[in-house]
Amino acid sequence: MGPVAVLCAIPQEFAFLADNLTGAEVTERAGMVFHAGRLDGHAVVLARAGMGKVNAAVAATLLIERFDCRVLLFSGIAGGLDPELAIGDVVIADHVVQHDAGYTAEDGFVVYQAGHQPFFNPHDELGHAADGDLIARVRAALEELSLAPLSAGGGKKPPRLHYGRILTGDQFVNSETLRERLFRELGGAAVEMEGAAMAQVCVAFGVPWLVVRALSDLAGSQSHFDFRQFVDEVALSSALIVRRLLPVL
Ligand code: ADE
Predict the structure, then answer these.
(1) How far apart are CA 49 and CA 72, in angstroms?
(2) Which of 145, 162, 187, 246 suits 116 as a labelling partner, its CA being 20 to 30 A distant?
(3) φ/ψ of residue 21, rounded to 5
(4) Which residues of 187-220 are buried (b: 16+ CB within 10 A; e: fewer)?
């Protein structure tokens, strides 16, 4: 059985997981860093890929083809789109969509209402649904989260967990107008810059995937300030959840 891959984009997402990896063997490839070792006794390859869809796709391909990983997880941060969600909440993707793929209208915005663009996407659906069995195991493993605090000694409340659609694009969303459109027209709970690209590679290779994102901001006009303030704290919370999931992957 191959190792579990945990893909991260930025150093804050990677740091806590890397610090807890034992016996790590470090490889550099395509300008990316891969740490292969054991996390809580599980064989894991941790990758720091950099931001965006192309980096995620390159790293995912290497994790599958070179490191023989049997399942790929993304652990990191996102901007919240659903107005019911708050900074610190965690969204686990049951579906991912690339929100910047398609064609544009006169105003320059991508036309979302048209949904899937058959001439553009080489597959039949809008985005990708997560593996149902994997999500069921994840739900079961995280059910008792509210009973057991995640952070050792921190005394903090565990984060609120949501399952929903995560949108991916090569843009940091810092706009009320776009935030509102992405929620209304594509039904996104959260937006980030890598998840759907990783998923597309996994689907192409027939490998299961999971995206876990903690909200650092709400993708509106304050998002760049909030991101800076909350990135460390929420990246840690996503990493703690991923560690909890290792036994069921
Ligand atoms: N990751 C964290 N916040 C984000 C945002 N507002 N847009 C895109 N990716 C993000």
Answers:
(1) 13
(2) 162
(3) -80, 135
(4) ebbbbbbbbbbbbbbbbeeebbbbbbbbbbbbbb
Instruction: Please tell me the distance between residue 2's alpha carbon and the centre of ligand 1 in angstroms.
Output: 31
Task: Encode pLDDT of 228-238 as tens digits.
Answer: 999 999 999 99
Strands 90-98 and 209-217: antiparallel
Which residue, among 92, 195, 211, has the nearest Cα to 143 in the 3D structure? 92
Ligand 1 close to Cβ of residue 79 (< 6 A)? yes
Q: 205 by DSSP, 3-state: which?
A: helix
Which stretch of DSSP H or E encloses residue 165?
A: strand 161-168
In the chain, where does DSSP find H-type helix? 11-19, 53-65, 132-142, 176-186, 195-205, 223-245
CATH superfamily, with its number, for domain 4-248: Nucleoside phosphorylase domain (3.40.50.1580)
Ligand 1 atom closest to 193 (CA): 9
pTM for this prediction: 0.93
- Whether ipTM > 0.95 holds is yes
DSSP annotation of 131: P
217 is catalytic: yes
Task: State if residue 172 touches ligand 1 by the CB under 6 angstroms criterion.
Answer: yes
Per the annotation, the verdict on 82 as an active-site residue is: no
Q: Per-residue pLDDT tens for 108-131?
A: 777 765 556 666 665 667 899 999
